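Okay, any thoughts on this one?
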Amino acid sequence: MSDVKTLRLVSAQLTAESLDAFITYERTVIGALASTSTPTELTWAGRFAFAHGKALTECGLDALTQQRIKVPVSEFCGKRSAWLTVKQRAADAEAALHLAKSHGQPESAKEQALLARATKELARLSSFKDFIDRYGQSAFDLLLARELELVTLHRELSRLEGTGGHVHST
């Protein structure tokens, strides 16, 4: 339990204001990476560094604070993004099973297995107990209130980063 207390002490205290600033940061990075006005002679790493610097200036966060806020936001968004993906796959499998049944055709074993796995995975991905232990209920509530916006930004930034080393951990 002392490890959780230590993690909570070193992580940023997430507030509505710091989350607003972080969202401004992410929107600015996305805009800069998607922009054609960024110097084209830069490598991807150079473009990202340029976008990062511009975003820090725009949002008013220092680099350390931005990184400390990024940790819980990324963990939350990664898990919620995975949940949304599995939820969609489960819905697709359920629809395929329903369609087969309505046409008098046998239900696909593949779709049945996918639905069973998805149900178990959704239960696992729905639990935020460890997250709340680490970052607190108030941080979770702030993130949950802006879930769609955060996950959309997270997915867009992940897409722009491409194979640039973006990895989720759950």
